[in-house]
User: Fold this.
Amino acid sequence: MNNPREITRVLFENFQPQAIHLFYAIGYAAIAIFIYGVYVQIRKYRRGKPDGSWGELLHRFIDMVKTMATHRTLVRRDKSAGRAHGLIFLGFVLLFIGTSVITLEYDILQPLFGVQFWYGNFYLLFSLVLDLAGLGLIVGLIYMMYRRKWLNLPKLDYKRVDRQEGDPDFDRSQYRREDWAFLWSFILIGVTGFILEATRLVWLSGRPTVWDYRMWSPVGALLAHVMQAVGLTAEGAGSLRSGLWWFHGLISLTFIAFIPYTKIKHIFTAAASLMFKDPLAGKRLPRIPDEQKTAGYKTITDLTWKNLLHLDACTKCGRCQEACPANAVGAPLSPRDVILSLREFANHALSAKELPKEAELDIHGKDIGQVFMETLWSCRTCLACVEICPVAVEHVPIIVQMRRNLVEAGEMEPLLEKTLQTIHKTGNSFGESKRKRAAWTKELPFEIKDARTEPVDVLWFVGDYASFDPRNQKVTQSFARLLHKAGVNFGLLFESELNAGNDVRRVGEEGLYELLASSNIGTIQACEFNSIVTTDPHSFNTIRNEYPDFGGKFEIEHYTTMVKQLIEGGQIKLKKKLDYRVTFHDPCHLGRYNKGYDAPRDVLKLLGCELVEMGRNRDNSFCCGAGGGRIWIPDPVGTEKPSANRMKEAGVIEGLQVFVVSCPKDLTMFEDALKTSGFEGKFIVRELIELIDECIEYEVWEDIPLTV
Amino acid sequence: MKILVAVKQVATLDEDFEIRANGSDVEEDFLLYDLNEWDDFSLEEAMKIKESSDVEIEVVVVSIGPDRVDESLRKCLAKGADRAIRVWDDAIEGSDAIAIGRILAAVAQKEAPDMVFAGVQSSDQAYASTGISTAAYLDWPHAAVVADLQYKPGSGSAVIRRELEGGMLQEVEINCPAVLTIQLGINKPRYASLRGIKQAAAKPIEEVSLADVGLTGADVGADSSMSRVRRMYIPAKGRAQMIEGTIAEQAARLIQIINEFKGA
Ligand code: SF4
Ligand code: SF4
Assistant:
């Protein structure tokens, strides 16, 4: 039996003291370069505006560690890449810990306290784990190389959608080169590490404390046998080793020094970005502080440090671009490009010692790093980008903040401008008289209570589309009948209800939003009720997530949740079952915004429908194109509308009868798209309420039959 | 350098409105107020001159009307006007466009601007004479329906293009100071964001009485006007109906209607 103390790796074995000193000097230099880089980055972030995300640090930290350890966000919608990254991540972390452990013993514990533990069984286990970690790292890297070279993934093509061929930063080939340099240098570190290990084994093959335990580093041992087989002698291995040692050491140290200057920094920025993730990002947009004169982001220094950090966290994975409906229909918008443009801008403008002049910090315009107005107006604030980003980049708040600046400067579509003026004047986007808001109630055979004058249990916030659009009024009436039939004690705000402001806010007209929100909050607060219900997911979102910031904390439900309870509780009796083959479109503001994925599906099941999902469903639902105020901006002629794109997706479902929606704007968008995309007669678009309506028998009055 | 822009808060009708009992006007409850559309363009024209000029130019908006008009003036301030003046006295109630012109002229005399802009007309009353009567009281040159303006601040004349019938333009050189009534489409008016309007609340609006501009109640109001509104009413509707159904059904119904008429 060997003395366990001798079963270890002697560090710097056979090195001249000068060589060791030289190595340490290079090591310190690398660390100094690293620290300077980190300093420059932090100085950059500090040039951003403050952000209040410091609360609950421990909680945030734990969440971040969980996300990183499970790679939960990385495996979504790209399993192989996520797993490969997992291998690289795990390999890197273990090798980093391993190196730190050695440093801890060799440079700190042993010289200061004479403590030693890196020998014997611990050493052997350590060798085994690190060997496997290194193997995982290399396997992961090889997959990533294969993926970049042979899979031809559109999301890995960095060509910009908002610029033309020939524009200076059109193809972004610099990023491609960086990706490859990263992969090659990383894999080189791994491979030379193994060769180094093997040469050491061959070199010390005569020493039993080394050779007898070689199988604890299986990869190294395998290589060592191969080397011996091709005739490498112990002596030859020894001299080969010293050269290789320096090569491996130098690229490793260079790698470390380069971290803050290259994409490798995502190790830190992505982790920090995840840690400062805002669970309500985009769902609750930031308020403009009362004392602030200007609105929105005009210059790069208007961004908060957190925004700047998010810019650096982006790993260019392209998941956001792939999910973006605007991008899918060829609009000049890729959420990734917005982030990268601003990142390049920030790196250029904020990394220097002195801050450039104000005029050079303008992020709006047509120059390199600036974001086009058309790009910003293409966004439908559907949140698909924010939702899928593996490193918690929050695109939508930045886009809306930039739009706020455009609105302030009046740089928007004339039609949108008109709509905003109309909303200001009449309180609704239809330009109708306030008095007509509840005109749809006139055709009902019963009176609806006025919640402003008498207490009710449920306050129904109807919303503009459900109130004024003739097609949606039918649905609104059905819902009123349903509530009435179920015996719900409900009431309306009648002409006091104003546009809830969700889309006005997402357009970037914050002043108008404040006006609408505070007026509605005042009106609602003056009523006596228990909870609010709405059929409009847009109103639902802003009342639920944004009104609290303005002092309006209310209990609110989307109707799907309420109806589900009414059916399950027996207040609504279904007199027949439907046997339709249906598919369901998740409205952005109900699904992604508020996680209301299940209630509408459960209701469909209760009705007896056979639900066939579209490929893009639930969190990956594809926006109808109406969000973010885009319903007020005409789509350019000759391009596909997102709603038409969605119709095609539904069209491939065999035997589909009904395309079910649960949002007034969806009904408008998709009925229109059904006609224009040639699926008319193949299937129909219905609001979920209409299907429920079919199953309820109303004794008192005749119903317009809605049959398939 | 100063440009005076006369603006008006106009009323638009709400759906299903009612006429006041005395028939003089629409019931106040059914009126929605907003800045006259033409005035957006005349203010923008003034702002364009201000913004492209090297010399300091003050843009002053003036309006005649009660408190509620402040809201429209604030919108003008939000768009960049330097000052706002509102003239009001209960005696002004019932003034026609000519009497209003007299007040505006009095304000102009006091302010001594280099140019006065007004809209071609107001969208609610559509007399199209306020600007012109102002010029008459001032005894200044004037031009109506201006669709293009070339004016160098401080120069003694301006070249304007007036819109005539049949798409014709008339190019006129006019001596300054002058009163111009500005036509829609001469420029692209800027958007006044709600935040801008809110912030403009900090800029004061000068409230001016008749006496401040050297007039008395006897100079204005219905009695000093050259015209009076006798009544407002909705003419009886003609009878029209949509004929629905298939082409054959429609034709049959049409024949039936014609026969009914012949028989009557
Ligand atoms: S919110 Fe939607 S439309 Fe806007 S950038 Fe993100 S994915 Fe694209
Ligand atoms: S923003 Fe997020 S999802 Fe988009 S490319 Fe960057 S890391 Fe990927």
